[in-house]
Amino acid sequence: GAPTENAESTTAALVDVE
């Protein structure tokens, strides 16, 4: 929902991929 929440989710996904 919130921009911050979305950013954290994206970061987590990128870290997981890397």
Number of E-type strands: 0
Q: For the terminal residues, how far apart are their CA atoms?
A: 25 Å
Overall shape: it is rod-shaped
Low-confidence stretches: none
The biggest beta sheet is recorded as: none
If helices are DSSP runs of H or I spanning 4 or more residues, what is the number of helices? 1
Helix fraction bin = over 70%
Q: Spell the H/E element sequence.
A: H
Q: Average the pLDDT over all residues and give the rounded result.
A: 64
Category from helices, strands and their pairing: mainly alpha
Strand content: under 5%
Q: Could you tell me the radius of gyration in angstroms?
A: 8 Å
What does this structure look like?
The chain contains one helix and no strands. It is mainly alpha-helical and 18 residues long. The chain has one helix at 3-17.
Describe the protein's topology.
Blueprint lengths: L2 H15 L1
Brief write-up:
This protein is mostly helical. It has 1 helix and no strands.
Characteristics:
mainly alpha, 1 helix, 83% helix, rod-shaped
